[in-house]
Fold this protein.
Amino acid sequence: MQQIRRRIALLTLIMVTAASALCVRLAYLVSVPNYQETARQQGTYTIRTTVTHANIYDANFHLLVNDTIQHIAVINPTPEAVTAILPHVLDKTAFYDNLQYGTPFSCAVNTSELDCEDITIFDVPLRHTEPQLAQHLIGYTRDGEGVTGLEADYDTFLRSISAQSSVTFTVSGRGSVLAGEKTLIHTGQTISAGVVTTLHKDVQQICETVGNELALKKGCIIVMDAETGEMLALCSFPSYTVSTLEEAMASPDSPLINRALYAYPVGSIFKLIPAACALSQNLGNFQYNCTGSIAIHDQIFHCHDRSGHGLQNLQAAMIHSCNPYFIALSQKLSAAKLHQTAQSLGFGESLTLSDSIIADGGILPGLQDLQIPAEKANFCFGQGMLTASPLQIARMTCAIANGGNLPQVRLIRGISQDGVSVEQEQQSVSTPVLSEKTAAALQDLMIAAAYGNDTFQGVPDSVSVGAKTSTAQTGRYDENGVEYCHGWITGFFPASQPRYVVTVLAEDGGYGNDAAAPIFRTVIEQIVQQHVLPIPNLPSS
């Protein structure tokens, strides 16, 4: 019996000692600041909105991202709050899923005003919309980081600036909001800082709308300021959306690539190069009698009009896009001069718009290649080895339109901290490559090409243009043996005082006059009708 008592006494002593040690430990933990803060946080519950990062602007500080506002409600799900918010909830399935837990949550609603103390609504910018304007240039983000385009190229700057709203509730151990306790509401600041591009939002929208409405299946549309080389619009077709990336990657039409930056066979647009070369060497009066073909050594080159165009001067040959004329003209021009003229107008040169947005330099045949008679002949009407990107073609057209200066292409104006001004913006840079006389003569040739052919489909209403089309052979054929051809057009407007350049590529689209010219015409008509750009010498309506 006594032994049992001793065991009980020993067990009691052990329990008292353990309890004392536990009390000492708890007292210590309560005294430590970190644990005090943890204990306090266990009595709060915070709901946060998505993070808003710095903007991407067009040239006039119109938002290209963050331009759509979504209303995000944070709700303490009391019966009164549920009744008030339910008619305005956008995703009711997700709403009911969250409601079953009885704790605060957020949801998208269609209003910014609800008179209920248990509901807080924030206006939160949506980073990207679908479809996203200028998708191939803007790019996209994943997990808060830029993946492609300007989102990736300026990721460090864009993500260094952020704003976020939140609501903090005082809750019980089960997560229910404690009645009568104060709710802390934090509204994130409005962000003004951002990257400023040269794009014009309205012009970009016009190009994307016209391209889709006129079924530009594959290709691109470019609008540039002829004087500065600034990109006013650049869109590639087909486009893609972030939510369908997997489908886009599997598509045979490759919607992820930016076709404005890829090199293609050019075709007859390139006839402007031997024309420029001839004009600079006082050969503008050269004539040739087109019989439908021309022989260069033992190789025959055919005209698209097999019956021939008859006697042609430079203007008539440009209007008719007569291959034999330009081949004959090439025989009067040195290979060195032809090569130098093409090179000075930007062929063979890659073009950088930002770190990852770079246009392919294409293929400019070397001087040794042009010593081969057949290659020189092909070169003069834009076939053979020659390839170029639509951006290169647009830049060349700028030099013709602005009096002979080849501009440096620009997509980025710079960085803005306040959303109204650009820090240390660089001025436009250009290089003289043509005399004013030669440039003016080329302008006249393009105006003649636009208005000298009754079948030309690129003449818009209300404003005059200069333009040149082409149909570039690819050497690829469909199942019926019909060759795929790229349809091109490049031109400027208004003709009397060129200010803007428009270039259209319809990849595998067929004839330039059928596939590209109507798009060229409609883009210009919409720009004029919507008054989105200042047009010099525009007749009053």
About this structure: The CA atoms of residues 379 and 532 lie 38 Å apart. The radius of gyration is 34 Å. Residues 21-41 have pLDDT under 50 and may be disordered. The chain is about 30% helix and 25% strand.
